[in-house]
Amino acid sequence: MNSFKNIFIGRSIHLLLILSVSITILTTLAVIVLLGKESFEFFKEVSIISFLFGTKWSPLIAPHSFGVLPLVCGTMWIVFGAVLFAVPTGLLVAVYLSEYASDKVKSFLKPVLELLAGIPTVVYGYFALTFITPLMKWFNPEIEVFNAASGALVVGIMILPMIASLCDDAFTAVPRSIKEGGYALGANTFEVIKDILIPATKSRIGAATILAVSRAIGETMAVTLAAGATARLTADPFGSVQTMTAYIVQVTMGDAPAGGVEYLSSFAVGTLLFIMTLVMNIIGNQWIFKSRMRIV
């Protein structure tokens, strides 16, 4: 009787796992089919060359223009600024948690990082709009209310827990004997971190950075509220920009009639965003896999 019960439970769990994997695969395929179908209709009306390499984005106001580079530029401003803030800060936090913090301090800081990861993105957007931007305007009154720098900084705060957590796990995975060997040779804590810990985990640090970049590329509400909705190619981080995700939000809120080329443009932008995120995730996962295979 117990043997039959164990077999039944085992097969039930097996079927449940297969069902879960199937749902994931089918959902991904449905997204790909939907984006591909609607994007195909869009590219019947607009040249893919002019879409990818055009420098003017004005799909909702005549004369219409569908050059996506201004949206890509706005997205890259957010990603670059977020990574520039989050990677060094997250690395320092991970080093502190791994090598300097006591168990009591670590038990306090870890939940704080998890809390940052759990805050809704719209709250981060309002935080940027009501705190970060006014703080920046206090130093430079000419900064626009909606600007790329504010959006980048708040997205950097959002991805900080991911980088700190992944780097902390990487540091913890380094065998203690290697660090003790450094101390035995007369190295101090800073030298062990600089010459042993970070070089030994550089692959995982790189993977954490790539995964954080893919997270920043897909951020929506925070940058919609903080960075504005002005699609333009600009070298000024203190001006308003529009990201790819922010444009998709703009269209889905009813700014374009359903079925028109303006509406279909959101699917073309979504397809490009999907491809960019997919490539970054593949690179990040491959990097992590290689780092795990490497003997520390």
How is this structure best described in words?
By secondary structure, this protein is an all-alpha fold. It has two domains: 2-45; 57-293, MetI-like fold. The chain is 78% helix and 1% strand. The protein contains twelve helices and two strands. Strands 1-2 form a two-stranded antiparallel ribbon. The longest helix is centred in the first third of the chain and has 44 residues, at 2-45. It is globular and about 70 Å long. The model has no long low-confidence stretch (mean pLDDT 83).
Secondary-structure blueprint:
Elements: H1 2-45, H2 48-53, E1 57-58, E2 65-66, H3 69-100, H4 103-118, H5 121-139, H6 148-173, H7 176-184, H8 189-200, H9 202-217, H10 221-226, H11 244-255, H12 261-293
Antiparallel strand pairs: 1-2
Helix pairs in contact: 1-12, 3-6, 3-9, 4-6, 5-6, 6-9, 7-8, 9-12, 11-12
Strand order of the largest sheet: 1-2
Helix/strand-derived category reads mainly alpha
* Count of separate structural domains: 2
As a percent range, the share of helical residues equals over 70%
Largest beta-sheet details? 2 strands, antiparallel
CATH architecture type of the largest domain: Orthogonal Bundle
**CATH H-level name of the largest domain... which superfamily?**
MetI-like
Q: Stretches where pLDDT falls below 50 for ≥5 residues?
A: none
Could you give the distance between the termini? 48 Å
CATH topology of the largest domain: MetI-like fold
Average pLDDT metric: 83
Shape assignment: globular
Q: How many individual helices? A: 12
Total beta strand runs = 2
CATH class of the largest domain: Mainly Alpha
